[in-house]
Amino acid sequence: MNNSSKAVVSFIVGAAVGVAVGYFLNSDKKDELVGKLRYQADKLKDKWKKKKDQFEDALENELA
Q1: Distance from C-alpha of 62 to C-alpha of 64, rounded to nearest angstrom
Q2: Percent of the chain at pLDDT above 90?
Q3: Which terminus of the chain faces fewer neighbouring Cβ atoms within 10 Å, N or C?
Q4: Which domain holds residue 44?
Q5: CA distance 30 to 53
């Protein structure tokens, strides 16, 4: 595959991704997906906070 063929394939793939993203951003599913992502992010944040608190408690116990 020569450079011009690679450029054409890259352009087509980029255009397809752009169309897909544009369609997604204008669809009704966007709000549903954003809500799910926020929920998962909040769960992960809570999990990390608990781990951090456990680590801090263990560190305080070691240093005491």
Answers
A1: 6
A2: 44
A3: C
A4: 3-63
A5: 34
45: left (phi > 0), else alpha (psi -120 to 50), else beta?
Answer: alpha
Q: pLDDT (tens digit, 9 = 90+) per residue, 37-62?
A: 899 999 999 999 999 999 999 988 88
| Interacting residues of 9 by C-beta distance below 8 A, sequence separation 6+ | 1
Q: Cα 25 vs. chain centroid, distance in angstroms?
A: 15
Q: How far is CA 41 from CA 18, 32, 35, 48, in A?
A: 26, 14, 10, 11
Angle between helices 3-25 and 29-63 (to 10 degrees): 90
The two three-digit tokens of residue 58, written as one number: 């263990």
